[in-house]
């Protein structure tokens, strides 16, 4: 399965009119059932403006809500985040335009390794994936070194501006999360060097073309994200599902909101107080869905281990260099929390 064309190209070639090649049939995951909840409204919403400019009462309430959201869901919608709507629109259209470039142009970015500054590809890691995923991606390391594809015109500027805004939002949320854990407001940002200019930020654009047999393929299988906090924007199509109380809860994107979720390194840092939550992306048969995530983590050589202040008896995870964790995750199939499980003590 080494030389695989993009899903977009496969769809546009017209060869998948009614059924998909068997290499794309996703065998399911015994650890996760397929019950989809009808309760799509449950994901909590956090009004970001109250965190940054609310009065003291509003601020302490929103910090409490943030803590509950992290503990109960690991996911929350962020509204009034201050990222201009136009910037969100430009990110979506620029991303769509990138995937619309000719395959030969995109192939310039067909990187091979995780730390290639820009990498366009398909599936997750076709060498190990148990089935090919109905997903193409563009992954860009946007910080501390900014990178961007040269085309489409203007995309680089949009990416740079959005990456910066996304770091600002993440860093404010991390202040609130730090407080909600009973730590000093700046604890996480300082320890993880989130504001030192060295933090690591990976931007991932996921493209899920429409699929004639959407029920047998998978966009992204059940997984958790690396890093401390991911911020995700989506075009207005459903597809993301969060595994909550043994059911898949579909996320209905609120226009122009950002969806935040706790990553594995927040679970490590908080010694399991806040847990990264398994999620997946299913696809649809009608339209192309695009999601854009930014994963925020410490500098790649930082060892992340449980904060001493939060270890009451014993650390529940061994520390690991951020870089090594990314390598570990990339070398296996994406499968629930299997990567984080390797670090659990006991
Ligand atoms: O497409 C989505 O909504 C989910 C994307 C995601 O989970 C990821 O990129 O890690
Ligand atoms: Fe994810």
TrEMBL record:
Domain Fe2OG dioxygenase: 198-298
Pfam families for the chain: 2OG-FeII_Oxy, DIOX_N
Subcellular location: Cytoplasm; Nucleus
Domain of life: Eukaryota
Listed GO CC annotations: cytoplasm; nucleus
Keywords noted in UniProt: Cytoplasm, Dioxygenase, Iron, Metal-binding, Nucleus, Oxidoreductase, Vitamin C
A GO molecular function held by the record: L-ascorbic acid binding
InterPro entries given in the database record: DIOX_N (IPR026992), IPNS-like_FE2OG_OXY (IPR044861), IPNS-like_sf (IPR027443), Oxoglu/Fe-dep_dioxygenase_dom (IPR005123), Plant_2OG-oxidoreductases (IPR050295)
Keyword Methyltransferase: no
Keyword presence, Amino-acid biosynthesis: no
Function field: Involved in the regulation of shoot development and salicylic acid (SA) homeostasis.
Family: Belongs to the iron/ascorbate-dependent oxidoreductase family.
Protein name: Oxoglutarate/iron-dependent dioxygenase
Native source species: Trema orientale (Charcoal tree)
